Amino acid sequence: MDPINRGPEEYGHDDDGQAPRQRPPREALTSDFGQPAPALARTVQLVAGDFLLTVNPVDGSEIETCPPRERPPRPAKFSAAERADPARAAHPPVPPGPAQPRLPLLERQEVRERLVRLLARGRSVRLTGPAGSGRTALLDAVADDCADLAPDGVVRLSGYRRTANDLLHDLFATVYNAPRHRPERDELLGFVHEIGAVVVLDDLEFGGNALDELLDATPECAFLVAATPDVAAPSADSLLEEVFLGGLERSASLELLERAVGRVLTEDESNWAGDLWFESEGLPLRFVQAGALLRQRDQLRADPGAFDQFGYYEDAPVDAPFDAEDGHDVPLPSLAEGAAPASLLASRLSESARATLRFAVALGGEVPHQAHLPALVGDTHADAALAELAGCGLVSPVGSRYRLAAGVQAQLETAGYTDDIDDRALSAARHYTWWAGHPSVTPERVCAEADAVLAALSVLVPLTTAPLDDEESASVQLARTAAPAFAAGLHWSAWERALRSGAEASRLAGEVPDQAYFHHELGVLALCGGQLDRARAELEASIGLRGALADKRGTVAGRRALALVSDRSGEALPGVRTTAGEEGSDARYEESASPPGGVPAGFALPAPPEPTTLVTHRTAAPAPVRRSGGIGSRLVSGTRRNLVAAGSGALLAAVLGTVVTLGMTSGDNTDDPSEKVGVNPSASQGANDDSLGADKAKKGSGDAGASSAPTDPGPDGTYGTSDDPTPSSSGRPSDEPSGTKGPSGPTKSPSKSPTSKPPTSKPPTSKPPTSKPPTSPAPSDSPTATPSTTPSTSDSASGPAASSSASAPASGPAAESPSGSVI
Q1: What CATH number does the domain containing 173 carry?
Q2: Average pLDDT of 750-766?
Q3: What is the C-alpha to C-alpha distance for residues 387 and 184, in angstroms, rounded to an integer?
């Protein structure tokens, strides 16, 4: 494969028949070695409950309601053949090198058979024993015996630093084939309720109600949990069977020591082993480590220079044969060294093994995976160090990895293995930062190394300070790189711990962009968990920091997540208008809401060139629709704010009408054109009869349904019509002229009605339109009078007549015009 000339079969490009690209000169190749192109950001989409989560390590994860097309189908269970791979992944890796002999289970056959019988009957058992009593070896043997008891087989889980909710998700991921799917709580309970398996749970760290919750959620499973005596006991009404695991008898302890050494013990060694049994109470771990001490002693007896490179017997010649009479015999370890053998065992190991122990001490007992040891230690064969440590009993399996065995951490710290703990943690952090961000590393592999990564963060975060140069803090970089991988790998407890460590480290380092990122991710995580108050606080903090940095893309992502929080909590965002046109209580109004009846016209409209009738329709505001919960509960109309707006509109109409009336009636110049244009239609008596001109159409004016000319809007924003298109015999305009413009030009029709006055504190009373009572039918209350065949309606700011009571209190006292209209 040519890395320069890419072939079509290698990268999926079709061969277009062109000549291959020429190789660039050597100078062009070597000039780019120091500046590699940055890798693209690795984004992963997950379905978490009702949300579609896009893990974005650059701007922050984006969360939205999952569309129906993105929802995964109902997950199916793994078959028996498909369960083999998860079962192998639950075991720790086999150390490289020669296979280590598997020590037998001594004096555990009776307990083993009892546990199998209880599990076969569907009973759950709690196995309690001190650290180093061989609980893990016993669980492995019982798991092999129960392989065919349950339809879903045997599920191996680790309870080390895991909560009940974490274990439920681990159980779901082990039994169901659901990649990139994390169900919500109710959905998860429905899935695990259908699991029928024997669950072997080691290193449980909780009890009481949390353990009852785990057992109640999986009624079809039989649990075998192992815990130390310091873990909280189950509740009083728990159905767990208690089985206590103690130490071995003296004879069994000596037999185990002989198996570990590979030969029969001498009398002195048997006496020394007897004293060790009394001191350790027969814990099998102590005799595994004692067997390693005796093997090292045998190597020294056979070759005094076997450990010369580590400083032992420097004065002895390398080629000198072993002779007990010459004083080259190696004494037995003391009883104190047998009870705490970690420092003596480590001193006789290889340099790579001792460096691995220093890294394990710096990481709080977590042993890095054997694939990382060559890069951390600096030795290409450092992966073989894990076999040395496991053979000496200095490490023990915990789930799918190794940790320092019980008591080894304290013994090594006393021996001085903490001198360079900060440097070791810094080296591990830089290595894991590079490794976790590599494109070839999957999120699942990062999750498998989560404890070591988090241990490095716990050491470095308190030591974080503001960097002197432009270099970023190692703890911030590690948290920023590992947190998205934990999220994508569905190890969300590790995701939360990495985010909190990163937020604290970025605060100490003064890295504001990284601090905003971590707060955003914490808000998204809280939103996925249903913790809306915490999500709102974290997202608001992130938006504030990104607003100060002018980070537009990050701010948009934060506001989208915050909008989703408000949608879930049923509250409106500040300054964000909801579907019903409402705002939050602390919103800043950028536009005023329109009243239900519409906005009144503030100025008179010019008369149309031909007499027409303006017909408007009053539409009542729709009744509010209330729904319980969710978005529908906020789609409410007719609120108090709309009522206030409607009243304000009615008051504005009254004020505008008063101003227009005052402007028309004031002044001494009778020739002012503004006084010759009527504002409101006036019901006046006709010249030839004693009836009101607004009551009936003029004789000879045509059809009864003929339309008449509109007039200018009155003070209340309505239009009226005049039925008399002919000019009046009087030439003087009245105090309230009502002029119309017909086809032949403007026509003046003086009115005998009294002059209207502006509204005062007391509503004015209307006077009769003429000096003598009219003989025609009484005038209508409406400001307009139209023929019966052409109904006319008006649209005012106060709304329809039926809803006038709602706007009247807001508009103050109503003023009645002489024509009967209410201002």
Answers
A1: 3.40.50.300
A2: 44
A3: 42
